[in-house]
């Protein structure tokens, strides 16, 4: 991926997961939504077996007990697979995820080639939260360009965007031998 790179291996404040160099994560001045550069995740192979991930973790203190919207911009040149923004709120949820505390755009991934597009993820931050992790990943080949991520507290009238558990989950395991 011939890009003009400002910082090819580390981005201050961010954690990068490249899976032994299968993915390249860095800063480029070739693309940008605003300013002079943006972050990118690119695959170094046509058939990657993992995903490239760019993430941060922050304290939930400022957002505790509130509904949080993460807004981010992306441009994609994805040959196969998907790009996804994600946000996860961690805490003591009695060994289960808190309702509305996770969104990875599973049902609305970034696919193919797109121009700069705004994405929004809305989650609950329960008062007992211990951490907020967020970022984006490329699960496939090609490139995902990321810029202008922001957070804001929103009202309860703004719908949650992640998958939430069913109101009445199945009470017992079903079809465990896959014969039905």
User: What is the CA–CA distance across the termini?
Assistant: 47 Å
Task: Tally the beta strands.
Answer: 9
Radius of gyration: 18 Å
Main sheet attributes: strand count, strand direction, barrel closure: 9 strands, antiparallel
CATH fold title:
Jelly Rolls
Gist of the model:
The protein has 180 residues and is an all-beta fold. 0% of the residues lie in helices and 51% in strands.
Task: Give your account of this protein's structure.
The chain has 180 residues and is an all-beta fold. It has one domain (5-154): Galactose-binding domain-like (Jelly Rolls, Sandwich). It is built from no helices and 9 strands. It has strands at 5-7, 15-17, 23-28, 38-43, 52-58, 66-91, 102-103, 113-125, 129-154. Strands 1, 2, 3, 4, 5, 6, 7, 8 and 9 form a 9-stranded antiparallel β-sheet that branches. It is globular, with a radius of gyration of 18 Å. The model is unreliable at 1-8 (pLDDT under 50).
Keywords:
180 residues, Jelly Rolls, mainly beta, 9-stranded antiparallel β-sheet, single chain, disordered N terminus
Protein topology:
Layout: E1 5-7, E2 15-17, E3 23-28, E4 38-43, E5 52-58, E6 66-91, E7 102-103, E8 113-125, E9 129-154
Antiparallel strand pairs: 1-3, 2-5, 3-4, 4-9, 5-9, 6-7, 6-8, 6-9
């Amino acid at each position: 991926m011939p890009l003009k790179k400002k910082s090819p291996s580390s981005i201050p404040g961010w954690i990068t997961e490249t899976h032994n160099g299968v993915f390249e994560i860095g800063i480029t001045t070739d693309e940008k939504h605003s300013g002079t550069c943006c972050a990118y995740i690119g695959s170094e192979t046509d058939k990657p077996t993992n995903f490239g991930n760019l993430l941060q973790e922050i304290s939930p203190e400022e957002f505790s007990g509130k509904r949080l919207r993460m807004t981010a911009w992306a441009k994609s040149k994805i040959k196969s697979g998907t790009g996804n923004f994600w946000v996860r709120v961690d805490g003591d949820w009695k060994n289960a995820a808190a309702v509305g505390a996770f969104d990875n755009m599973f049902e609305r991934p970034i696919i193919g080639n797109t121009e700069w597009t705004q994405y929004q993820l809305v989650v609950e931050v329960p008062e007992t939260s211990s951490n907020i992790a967020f970022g984006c990943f490329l699960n496939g080949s090609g490139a995902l360009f990321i810029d202008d991520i922001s957070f804001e507290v929103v009202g309860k009238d703004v719908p949650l965007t992640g998958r939430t558990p069913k109101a009445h989950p199945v009470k017992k395991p079903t079809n465990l031998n896959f014969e039905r």
